[in-house]
Specification:
Length: 808
């Protein structure tokens, strides 16, 4: 079972703070100064220095010289690249800061980081242990240096030292006397509490410290939390988000002081009043890479916007459509705009104002149709007639040439069967449009049912599970799977028969937060979900990944992703802890099979004024890596993206990020974060590597299932060539409707290559897909292809005056 020690190890891991406080990423960095351990990036204090005992400044500053200046002190910190500060404790208000904040190179050694403005790179002599990290992008392992004792249990009650959960082993135990907030998550207060169950729970959710108190209470956190001696008051106000501050180390007591017998096992101690029996393990359950420079990607401004969008999608013409809720933009706005990405440098030409909307798209659903025109559709909205809305747009124009088509709507003759606000939509395997869920209006009755477009005479189908889980199942995540339709709603998931819509399989409930199993993933507890990559020959069960979300009990954002294969014989949810908490996130599938997680807040829920503490950091999720090693902490932005924000992958391989409507008050917005007009892009590292992008030409862009299609590689190598297909996405409220990632079979003879289209509509629902050719990690510019035709003859619908129909 391994050995145990009685000292805290120097596991430098990301600190997850209390759920009501902002989560930050603490950099995992090699301890480069002999005798010192990297402590983290730290802010200055409030009207005081973080470290005030001694200071020096000079233009030859290095970490080693500052360490020498601070000999005899507990901490040293470098700032502005040339300043050195020493101290034994942190000043009031000094707090953990994001790792990326400490970005200034040391004046005397550019390979080292010496803080930044109002940020200190802090090292300490206090902690024992050694951190090994080959480079800034590697994962971290911790080697213990303290003495060990045999893992045998003495007779009589005491701290449990043997039969601890295996895996990373539990090499440390310590008793402390500080308040409950030493470990931020109170997991339970139960009469079955014992060390094994508490430690297992903490490990399951990616933490590396567990504490037991008052016999019946279990707490989870990180080793770094053990350095926290202050306990800020909690608050559910998203504007009132603080960070823990560091002070003195917790005091340590003999085992006999923590002598409350565990409620679930009287053979062991589980703390006492204001005392924790706590356990740590030296290898973190999760390892987040922290790439630097271009390897971390880059946020940049694309263009100033003309609207705060609600729904965003790239049309098959390459232009991007923006739809706004009524009243979001200027009083003379039309609610619809189109952006020509080839004209970004000329604002007046880049944007086209569109007309035709007669009802409000406020919290509607959107899709790209599989008809040959690639028309876009939105359904639902708010309120009144808008609830029934069906709106269509036939994209036209070309690069540099404005289109002339407009949105078309006939509220009197083309409507949904029932009013829907916050519904979801999906193209079914048979090519029809499935519309699911929603509610009638604000604080009004739900719509626990579904309907099909075009209407064939049937009515709605009642879904009892939506009735039961309202109001936390809005904008449910839906996708086609070979055995039917997968739907994820609130904290539940199931598979429906695609013809009868009866339930054919119920999955285990999704794990929520470590301390709240009822945390949800769909609106109003909004997280995000994507389909994981599918690879030829497409025989493996498709996977799904859901990230972030929140809890109904206080709006504490969830800090993990969960994944499963719904059609596996016994599907189970795999939990992977994220570097920080995130509600209102957006996720975008990239051409290389990775996923960008961006935006959102660290506290609250979805809705006007209900979510805050913007999460400015991007995370890259790579499902090809081992579990708990799939996330990389990427670049930061300065733009808050909260309620009503969007993210879509563009044909050029970048991710467009738009929107943020946190208050709903456009004339005089309240709060800390504005109504956001600016449009950004995130450039992934594959476009910053300096490697040339492959280019290709393809003649046939209308594909049938299972057929082979030729393309010519006009530049690039075939040695490591692969092809990906990304479904056309309509992004709103963290829901990427139409998202799919597929890697079909490809072979080449010289520069002539052949792609085998996916085999059927259950692997690849009919529709439009971005086709990318990759030379190793580097994607080409994509081109749209249509796969599977238009089996439901949507091109002939609706047969009403005023609607131009592309035909079949």
């Amino acid at each position: 079972m391994g050995n145990f020690t009685y000292a805290v190890k120097a596991a430098v891991v990301a600190s997850l703070l209390t759920s009501s406080f902002s989560a930050v990423v603490v950099e995992k960095r090699q301890s480069v100064v002999t005798g010192w351990t990297y402590y983290g990036c730290q802010t200055e204090g409030t009207n005081v220095r973080a470290l005030a005992a001694k200071s020096t400044a000079y233009d030859t500053m290095t970490l080693e010289s500052c360490a020498s200046d601070c000999a005899g002190y507990t901490y040293f910190g470098t700032e502005y690249g040339r300043e050195c500060y020493c101290g034994n404790a942190f000043g009031t208000g000094s707090a953990i800061a994001p790792a990326a904040d400490c970005s200034f190179s040391c004046r005397g050694n550019s390979a080292e980081k010496c803080g930044a403005g109002n940020r200190l790179s802090v090292y300490t002599e206090r902690l024992t242990g050694a951190v090994s990290s080959a480079n800034a992008g590697s994962t971290t392992k911790v080697a213990a240096t303290t003495a060990t004792v045999a893992s045998t249990q003495p007779a009589g009650p005491g701290p449990q030292k043997s039969d601890i959960p295996a895996g990373d082993n539990i090499p440390a135990k310590e008793n402390g006397n500080i308040k409950l907030s030493v470990l931020p998550y109170k997991v339970w207060d139960t009469q079955t509490n014992d060390p094994v169950s508490c430690i297992t729970r903490c490990q399951q959710f990616g933490f590396n410290a567990a504490g037991l108190e008052y016999s019946s209470q279990c707490f989870c956190g990180d080793i770094q939390n053990l350095q926290v001696a202050s306990a800020p008051t909690t608050s559910t106000n998203p504007n009132d988000v603080q960070q823990y501050t560091y002070s003195a180390l917790p005091l340590k007591y003999a085992d006999s002081v923590c002598n409350a017998l565990c409620s679930g096992n009287k053979n062991y101690y589980c703390g006492s009043g204001n005392r924790l029996t706590y356990y740590t393990w030296t290898t973190s359950p999760v390892n987040w890479a922290i790439p630097t420079g271009n390897a971390g990607g880059k946020y940049s401004l694309l263009i100033g916007g003309v609207v705060v969008p609600l729904i965003v999608s790239q049309a098959i013409t390459g232009k991007v459509t923006f739809l706004e809720k009524a009243g979001t933009g200027e009083p003379n706005g039309t609610g619809a705009y189109e952006l020509d990405l080839t004209q970004i440098n000329t604002f007046s030409i880049a944007w086209r104002q569109m007309t035709g909307l007669k009802t409000d798209v406020f919290c509607a659903a959107g899709l790209t149709l599989p008809d040959k025109a690639g028309r876009q559709i939105t359904v639902g909205g708010w309120a009144g007639t808008s609830n029934y809305g069906i709106r269509l747009y036939w994209p036209d124009g070309s690069a540099g040439v404005k289109g002339t088509q407009q949105w078309t709507e006939d509220p009197n003759n083309l409507q949904l069967l029932v009013p829907r606000w916050y519904p979801s939509a999906m193209i079914m395997a048979n090519g029809s449009i499935l519309v699911v869920g929603g509610e009638i209006g604000q604080n009004a009755d739900q719509q626990p049912n579904l309907e099909i477009l075009p209407r064939t005479g049937g009515g709605t189908v009642y879904l009892d599970f939506l009735q039961r889980t309202h109001p936390f199942n809005l904008y449910p995540f839906i996708m086609v799977v070979p055995s039917g339709i997968f739907i994820l709603y609130y904290n539940e998931a199931r598979i429906l028969d695609e013809k009868t819509f009866a339930t054919v399989k119920i999955l285990p409930n999704l794990p929520g937060a470590v301390n709240d199993a009822t945390g949800g993933r769909t609106y109003q507890l909004q997280g995000s979900m994507v389909a994981l990559p599918q690879y030829a020959p497409f025989t493996a069960p498709v996977g799904v990944l859901a990230c972030g979300g929140s809890t109904s009990n206080g709006g504490y954002a969830i800090d993990n992703c969960v994944s499963t294969q719904p059609e596996a014989a016994n599907p189970a949810w795999t939990i992977e802890r994220m570097p920080s908490r995130r509600v209102l996130p957006c996720m975008a599938g990239l051409p290389d099979g990775t996923y960008l997680i961006t935006g959102g807040g660290q506290h609250g829920v979805a809705g006007f004024g209900l979510g805050g503490a913007p999460n400015l950091n991007a995370v890259l999720y790579d499902p090809s890596k081992p579990v708990n090693q799939r996330m990389s902490v990427m670049a930061n932005t300065t733009v808050a993206r909260l309620y009503h924000s969007e993210a879509i992958t563009l044909l050029d391989g970048r991710v467009m990020i738009s929107g943020s409507d946190p208050t709903g008050d456009y004339n005089s917005p309240q709060g800390s974060w504005p109504e956001e007009y600016r449009v950004e892009v995130f450039t992934p590292p594959y476009l910053l590597s300096g490697l040339a992008r492959p280019t290709f030409t393809i003649a046939t862009k209308d594909w049938q299932y299972g057929a082979a299609y030729a393309f010519a590689l006009t530049s690039g190598s075939t040695a490591n060539l692969k092809v990906s297909l990304l479904g056309s996405v309509s992004s709103t409220h963290g829901n990427s409707m139409g998202q799919r990632t597929l890697f079909p079979a490809v072979s080449c003879s010289g520069a002539t290559c052949s792609i085998t289209a996916p085999p059927n509509s259950h692997v690849c629902p009919p529709g439009w897909y971005m086709l990318f050719v990759l030379d190793g990690p580097t994607p080409s510019v994509g081109q749209f292809v249509r796969i599977g035709g238009d089996p439901a003859s949507l091109g002939n619908w609706p047969k009403l005056a005023g609607f131009n129909l592309p035909g079949v």
